[in-house]
Design brief:
By secondary structure, this protein is α+β, with helices and mostly antiparallel strands. It contains three helices and seven strands. Bound molecules: nickel (II) ion (NI).
Length: 184
Amino acid sequence: MIYPIVVYGDAVLRKRAIDIEQGTDLIQLIQDMYETMHAAHGIGLAAPQIGKGIRLFVVDGTTLEDEPTLMNFKQAFINPVILGEMGTKWQFEEGCLSIPNIREEVSRKEKIRMKYLDENWQPKEEDFDGMKARIIQHEYDHIEGKLFIDYLTPLKKRMLKGKLADISKGDVDTEYRILAPLRK
Ligand code: NI
């Protein structure tokens, strides 16, 4: 099932998502999240983006032909915790399915260590770097109630204000179905 994607302005994107009880059946939900993400041509999707305030996100970078490091990077993260961020900060242009048609440079540290449960509820502790780390940091922010535009300068934010207001009203072109909080 393909969910509509909740866009900027909805409170669910601003709440810290809650832990999922061990053993909860997430098979269908994870499958639906992959389906929703693929339909929207995304490489990451967090549960709050489909209106669910739980600590779960999926990533799939395997479709990016110019990113060979992501060749096998398709997985779900349940109750993830970033234990540390290391290395030098680097800039990269990010976008977000919940903030359509806006892309901006965001600076993030290059490495992370994290623990999480995989889709079979197996506990993992793993390091990620480069693009993998960046995708995870972006998705992790979603379950912390944070968005990539929070990292922009006050000037940049002011310049985007009108576009963001339009997105909240559903006044934006997307190839996927959205749920806009202020749509009349
Ligand atoms: Ni996003």
